[in-house]
Amino acid sequence: MSLNREGRPTRPNPPRDGEGDQPKGGGRAGEAAETGTWTGNRALMLEEPLLFEIGDMETTGVDFDPVPQEVTIGHRAFEHDESFYADRLGGLQRKRPIGLAGLSEPQAVRHYTRLSRQNYAIDLGLFPLGSCTMKHNPRLNEKVARLPGFADVHPLQPADTVQGALEAIHRLGEWLIRLTGMHSVAMSPKAGAHGELCGLLAIRSALEARGDRREVVLVPESAHGTNPATAAFAGYRVENIPANARGRVDLAALKARLGPDVAALMITNPNTCGLFEPDMIAISQAVHAAGGLVYCDGANFNAIVGRVRPGDLGIDAMHINLHKTFSTPHGGGGPGSGPVVFSPALTPFAPLPFVEKQDGNFVLVEEETAGEHHGSSFGRMVAFHGQMGMFTRALAYIMSHGGDGLRQVAEDAVLNANYVLRRLEDVLDAPFGASGPCMHEALFSDKGFAGGLTTLDLAKGLIDEGYHPMTMYFPLVVHGAMLVEPTETESKQGLDQFVGALRSVAERARAGDQSLKAAPVHAPRRRLDETLAARKPVLVYRDPDRAEAAE
Ligand SMILES: Cc1ncc(COP(=O)(O)O)c(C=O)c1O
Question: Which of 169, 189, 371, 411 has the lowest CB atom count within 10 Å?
Fold first, then answer.
C-alpha cells in the first residue's frame, strides 16, 4: 500500500473489511435484487452511491505539500505555528477532520459522469415542460458568452475599459425596445419574477408621485403563479379575476372590479393556458380609465416575438425572460435575466443603473449621473448592471436570427404546439381546443382517464417512454392539467415520436390500465415520496455509524 506524505493510503478504492462479496461499482443490495444483476446496474445505466459511500475518510486521492515552516506574505516572513492561523482566523480554525471522503481523480470523475448520465437534458431529447420553455440553446451563444471581453470583465472596472461590454448591453436593450414597441428598458433584473417586482415598484412610484396610494393588484386566474406572489411580496393585496369559458380574462368581471383602490392589473399574455388575450386593448383601456396601470408578464414573448408589439396593446411595464425567448437553458440549467420594458408613463421611475450612449461613449448612468428626466427612479434592483452572460447569449441569439428569423421562431413555436394539440386531442381532453389555435403551448386535462388514473400516472408512464414529463397540475384553472411546450426547435420527426409516446400512454390511461400506477418501471428509481422529499429533504450526509451512535 502506498502512503502519502501525511501517512494516508493513496490506493484507489480499497475494499473494506468483509465487503469482498458485496456488490461493487455502487450497487446496493435492494437494487441488485430488483435488477437481477450482481451490481445493481442495468447495462450502461449505472447505479451510483454518494461520494461518502464510495470513498472513506482514511484514504486520500490528493497529495498536498506539507505546510511550510515559514510563510511569506508580501515582504514579511512568518513562522508557521498554530497562533499564526489562530490570529488570522479569529479563532474559527477547524479543530477536527472535515469528514470528506478521500477519492482518487478517476473515482471523482466517474461519479459525476455517471450522475450526469441519469439526468434528462434538452441535449438528449424533446423536453416538453410548458411555461418553463426548454429549447435548444445554439452553441454559438455559448461561444460568444465565453469570450474573455465579456466573461472576464469585472463590474467595478472603469467604464472606458469595458466599452464593448457596455455596447452589447445597450444594443440588446435597443433590440428589446424595438421588438416590444415600448419606450425604455431596465436591463438589471435577474429573473422573470425579479422583473415583475421591478415593474410593480415602478408602478408604485408612479402612483405615489401623483399622490395616489392604491392597495390592490388584480391577477387573472390564467396568470403565472409568480404574479400573485410578486404582488403580495411588494405589499399589495391580491385579488383574482376569473377566466371565461374560453380560458381568457373575463372582461366583464374585470370591469366590475376596477376602482380607485386598484393599482394595477398583472396579466400574463400569452397566458398560462397557452392562449392569446384578444381583448388586451380593451383590458388596458379599462384599467387606465380606472386610474390603474397594466403590468404584462411577458415571459411567453417567445410565442409572439416579431408578430405583436406589446407597446401597441396599452401595456405600461412588461418583463421578458431572456432565458425563454432568447434561448439559454431555463430553470435549473442556468441563471436567468428578466429585463423590463416601460411605457413613457413609467420611464422616469425605471431603476438605475442603465447604459446610455453619450458623445460616442457608453456610460452606466448611476445615481450621481442620472439627469433630471431620470430623477424619479425608484432605486436599483441589483448591485451592478445585471447578468452579462445572459445578455451576450440573448444578443447572439437575436443577431443570428435577425428580425425575420425571430418572427419565424414565434411562428414555428406556435405551429409545433398546434401540431401536438391537434394530433392528441382525440386521446387527451383539450379544454380550450375548440376555441381556436393555441399559442406556444398545448393544454390538456385528465378528463376521460379511467380506473382512478391521474395526470401523475401518465407523467410517470412518459418517463418509461424516455421523456421528461410535461408541466403538470398547472395552470390551476384546468383539472389535472398537462401543459406541453414543444418549442420551435423540434423537427416534425421529433414531434411525431413524442406524440406517439404520449398517445400510447394516454390510451392506457383512458383504458384504466392499472400497470401505469407502477410506472416508471424502467427508470433508475421508481416512484419517490415527493411530498416527503419536498417537506423533509435530506441535504446532509450522516455517517450511519455515527448517526446510530448519536441516537
Ligand atoms: C409566464 C411566466 N412568468 C414568470 C415566470 C418566472 O420567471 P423566472 O423563473 O425567471 O423567475 C415564468 C417562468 O418560466 C413564466 O413562464
Answer: 371
